[in-house]
Design brief:
8-stranded mixed sheet, binds guanosine-5',3'-tetraphosphate, 8-stranded antiparallel sheet, 531 residues
Length: 531
């Protein structure tokens, strides 16, 4: 296997994530996908929720207490001679910068929408990151077995909110809650009918009806669906692969993950439409071909997964070449070698060694204390991938050492967690060195900080939440204007990691008010600041 041509193997890989709002059915869909495909490694499938099997990694007590998994799981499975890597995007209480960073490691995203709810907040934020990173998006409208909104209305919402042209590939026959079947728009003369087997088997049986049979089985609904399909064709809502890859359109699928309806067609779409790993752009221009020597991107670093060892595991997306366990790679940031003796394919409790990995695959490197999120690793010719973007934080808290005698440890710990990308650290002259402001995408990041400060740095801290929820990048002049403004509530601080200025506001409304007063002061460089 190690002699395999990485380009040929990479062409068979599809690496993707599901983006959705909590409760849209991501866990259900993940299981349904794995059930349809042949799961190669059930690498701790999904979040343990509602009694469902889960990763249940127990690296932190608070994690156990909350019954959720902090670990991004990766599921690898086979479908039609392709190998699919499905990367989990943590999304409930554990929504954090890591959720966004996963999208730096995938080539495609499946946007899962609840048919009754349409686009929701978390979907919007994650979609923004996909757009920013140029990740093409396939849409799956879930829960069509339950009453919901009209299909055309949902398409309108995607188009008007995301400026993304929806191009249905399957179309529901029957309104939400009264699904009579699906039409594959590439084969509009047939109805795919799903019937539940007597005896209550979960998976619905799929059968293909001719147009005549469909007209008998689902008369008015079949007729209406045929008219809607005609309308979609006339308005040009037809899948175009180039448009999709360019991020201008999204192929749309309908179904019900809980009964496996439409899931096979979605899986086929991931194989047929989602792009294989492509050459990755390099910092300063040029790109790393898939068949170049090994290169990989560290997109997540998880600390303390194994309490006995207090180690760190770095999640690396292979970008080019062949990864072989034991190889020595170079860390681009320092030029120093890193030995990969302990490489794992499986995350959570159940680790097993990975010997070889190809572009699109994810490996976990243990003992990765020297690695940071955004690092490039390589062998052969030097590779430097662009740094991980910084994401707009929405939660802010002042950190203070509980024990003033541990100030030195406190400062060291905070600096280390900042460098690792666990949390963003903000400072200002006004607040002083002993009380930095921590900024996070999700509140769980604060819990991680508190836990690690106490257990790893022996510097327990107190966190006082601040009433800000919006952060925008500004410059020195904007910062001064904000700190002096009497009209707008807000505060400007510097990010210690790169010295840039962040303007914090209690609401979007206040941010807009400031922008009206100082039209040039706010710069749009933070990702996922959905307006
Ligand atoms: P999440 O990971 O995105 O948070 O969602 P999850 O899969 O946990 O699904 C959330 C709820 O939606 C679950 O119900 C699940 O059964 C339901 N669901 C998922 N897909 C479908 C679907 O296609 N149709 C219908 N009708 N329901 C669906 P729950 O009551 O919260 O949990 P459970 O007791 O059913 O597991």
């Amino acid at each position: 296997m190690t002699n395999a041509d990485p380009a040929a193997v990479a062409a068979r890989r599809r690496t993707f994530a599901v983006i959705s709002h909590p409760d849209a059915g991501k866990s259900t869909l993940t299981e349904a996908l794995a059930l349809h495909a042949r799961a190669l490694t059930s690498a701790g499938a999904v979040h343990g929720k509602g009694g469902r099997r889960g990763v249940a990694s127990d690296w932190m007590e608070m994690e156990q207490a909350r019954g959720i998994s902090v670990t991004s799981a990766v599921l690898q499975f086979d479908h039609r001679d392709r190998v699919l890597n499905l990367l989990d995007t943590p999304g409930h209480a554990d929504f954090s910068e890591d959720t966004y960073r996963v999208l730096a490691a995938v080539d495609c995203a499946v946007m899962l929408i609840d048919a009754a709810k349409g686009l929701e907040e978390q979907t919007r934020k994650l979609f923004d990151v996909c757009r920013h990173r140029g990740v093409p998006v396939i849409t799956f409208v879930n829960k069509w077995d339950r009453p919901g909104r009209e299909a055309l209305e949902l398409l309108d919402e995607i188009e008007s909110e995301f400026k993304l042209k929806p191009t249905p590939v399957t179309w529901p026959v029957g309104i939400a809650g009264e699904l009579r079947g699906l039409v594959d728009v590439r084969d509009p003369g047939h109805l795919l009918r799903y019937t539940r087997t007597p005896g209550g088997a979960k998976e619905a049986v799929e059968e293909t009806l001719t147009a005549e049979q469909a007209a008998v089985a689902a008369g008015p609904e079949w007729e209406q669906a045929s008219e809607e399909l005609e309308l979609l064709r006339e308005t040009g809502a037809v899948h175009d692969q180039e448009d999709f890859l360019a991020g201008n359109s999204t192929p749309v699928f309908f179904g019900a993950a809980v009964s496996n309806i439409g899931v096979r067609l979605l899986l086929d779409a991931v194989v047929d439409l989602a792009p294989a790993p492509a050459p990755r752009p390099l910092l300063g221009g040029g790109e790393r071909p898939v068949d170049a020597a090994f290169s990989g991107l560290v997109f997540k670093v998880q600390a303390n997964m194994d309490r006995a060892h207090r180690d760190r595991i770095a999640f690396v997306r292979v970008c080019s070449g062949v990864f072989e366990r034991g190889m020595t790679v170079t860390r681009a940031a320092t030029g120093k070698p890193f030995a990969t003796k302990y490489a794992h394919s499986v995350f959570g409790q159940d680790r097993s060694s990975v010997e070889t990995a190809y572009p699109g695959d994810v490996v976990g490197l243990v003992n990765a204390n020297a690695l940071r999120v955004g690092d490039t690793l390589y062998t052969g010719a030097r590779a430097d991938f662009p740094p991980m973007p910084t994401f707009a934080p929405e939660h802010f808290a002042v950190a203070r050492p509980s024990d003033i005698g541990r100030s030195k440890q406190f400062r060291r710990g905070i600096a280390q967690l900042d460098e690792e990308g666990v949390v963003q650290v903000l400072a200002s002259d006004r607040r002083g060195e002993q009380s930095p402001v921590l900024a996070a995408v999700g509140p769980m990041q604060f819990d991680v900080v508190a836990h690690r400060m106490e257990n790893e740095f022996s510097a327990p801290l107190r966190l006082e939440p601040l009433a800000y929820s919006v952060a925008r990048v500004t410059d020195k002049a904007g910062a001064e204007a904000l700190n002096l403004s009497r009209l707008v509530h807000g505060e400007a601080l510097t990010r210690t990691r790169d010295g840039s200025w962040l303007a914090l506001f209690p609401s979007r409304w206040q941010a807009s008010a400031f922008e009206r007063e100082f039209p040039d002061a706010l710069l749009e460089t933070l990702v996922a600041a959905h307006e």
